[in-house]
Amino acid sequence: MRLNCNDPIPDRDDHVVRKGSEEYDPENPGECIDSNEPTTPGDMTERGCTYAGCRGVVGGPVKDVLHVTHGPTGCAYYSWGYRPHLASDTSQHMDNVFVSNLQENQIIMGGEDRLLETILEAHEEFPDAEGIFVYNTCSPALIGDDGFDVAKRAEEEIDDDVPVTFFPCAGFSGVSQSKGHHVGNNVIFDELIDPAETPEREEMTINIVGEYNIKGDLEVIRPPLEELGLDINVTFTGDGDLESIRQMPKASLNVVHCARSAGYITDMIEDAYGTPSIEVSFWGTRHMSKAIEKVADFFDIEERGQEVIDSELTAIDEQLQYYRDRLEGNRVFIYQGGPRCWHWPPMLEEDLGMDVVAVGSTFGHEDDHRKIFERVGEDTLVVDNPNGPELEEILADYDIDLFISGNKEKFLAYKRGISFVNGHSYDSGPYAGFRGLLGFAEDMDKAVNNPVWDLVGEEAEPFGGDGSPDVLDHVGDASGVAD
């Protein structure tokens, strides 16, 4: 489908599909849209890199290790605390950032000695850390630094049973941050989970996999599961620690929340140890209820599962109706990474009566887009890897009331007088689970029903209004730039 702003980049047409259009294939919905491909040259993509997916998503939440970036300061700064993956008993993994800070001299002569020095200095400052994670970036990968060897040398010099784990996650090594998820899973399994040391499996014990405890999501996910009588062995990797991750194989079941970022490790654990896994969604009442039903069915405690569901739904019913009354009918554009693009439409539409009219995925694969199309209504616009002008055009042409995206896109909405909620790292949170839904609804209510929009509508021209240039009118036309 051609968006007006894509006239200079026609290759983008195959990444934009409206459900129900000629391009849409109901028999193979995931195949009718191009995804998980290299960004089209000239396309100002919003994607993150492989390093971002490994350091920022999978590795970063591990709370009792030091996180060292091998590369320029900018890469480390980007990953410093921008995802609020909270921990129950520490914040050091978010407070501190370590970087080898490569300069021109190291790029010419090699940065391995600088990396070794950085690792040893970090350990000297924080000797109680249980381990050290080292993440590669583009520059040292291009000059050929051997991070694996440096990690081994550092372990020998530290000589204190502190593992130094190297992640080969150079930013350019994949088409998006999704490759970084894969790298993180593989390295953690290969380096930290020892198949030779098989722990005894514990009954009624689960791992929550692919949950990163953004703004305390685990505080509302854990209680209903624990009410079933289950012991949560570890969360991979939100609020996770090194030793519990090593003990992942002792759980009876892996409960996978974000299959796109963490399904890899559950597949490896199942192959090595025979541990089964189920995919669930902890978003919205229907899917949270279904998650509890699936877990309860596995452990043959269906009656207890229904009791927990009924109790949770009763507890939130009155407040949920209040927010539904205030949000019903609002038109929503969701732009997230991958799974939230198909987790959230049913929640917003069924629980809150909102109308999801457009969905954009930064790094979704074919199966992600299949699930998006299955869960959105007819005529919904679906976009893979949208760029800035595409986001602006959708905001302008689709009568959007609420844009749910990440912080870097926030001002695209504000300039058009459109309300915004940060779905990436949350405005407040938690947002998951039965009770987190109320927090999500509250933030959406504050955004959509903020009286400032009435003021803006009366006394200010929106971006692109009379007297101000609209970037969409001048895409591909240098002569249209205002003097």
Describe this structure in words.
With 483 residues, this protein is of the alpha/beta class. The protein folds into three domains: 202 residues, 3-Layer(aba) Sandwich (Rossmann fold); 143 residues, Rossmann fold (3-Layer(aba) Sandwich), CATH 3.40.50; 75 residues, Nitrogenase molybdenum iron protein domain (Rossmann fold, 3-Layer(aba) Sandwich). The chain has 19 helices and 14 strands. The strands form three sheets. Strands 1-12-11-10-13-14 form a six-stranded mixed β-sheet. Strands 3-2-4-5 form a four-stranded parallel β-sheet, with helices on both faces. A four-stranded parallel β-sheet has the order 7-6-8-9, with helices on both faces. Helix 1 crosses helix 8 and helix 5 runs parallel beside helix 7.
Which structural traits does this protein have?
483 residues, alpha/beta, Rossmann fold, 3 domains, six-stranded mixed sheet, four-stranded parallel sheet, 19 helices, 14 strands, 42% helix, 14% strand, globular, disordered C terminus
Sum this structure up briefly:
The protein has 19 helices and 14 strands. The protein has 483 residues and is of the alpha/beta class.
The first-level CATH class of the largest domain is given as Alpha Beta
The amount of beta strand, in percent, is: 5-15%
Q: In CATH terms, what is the fold-level topology of the largest domain?
A: Rossmann fold
Main sheet attributes: strand count, strand direction, barrel closure? 6 strands, mixed
Q: Strand order of the main beta sheet, please?
A: 1-12-11-10-13-14
* DSSP summary, beta strand count: 14
- The percentage helix is 40-55%
